[in-house]
Specification:
Blueprint lengths: L16 E2 L4 E2 L6 H6 L5 H18 L15
Amino acid sequence: MNPPKDIPSPCVKVCTMDPGRGVCLGCYRTLDEIGGWGVFTATQKLAVLARIKERIRWWGPPAGTVPGPDGGTA
């Protein structure tokens, strides 16, 4: 099964980097993940989203988001 071609950015417009964690406090992406999003393949984007889910498990939901029923963000 092929990944969808159009995967929306997880950006929630709360763009502040946490220097201790090295991720944006709004979307939990690293600077490399944010900068590369526009050129990443769908597979790469899905990998970033999977890493974000892991970060949410470790640190709780990022700022500006609402926890979804599965513990992810809605």
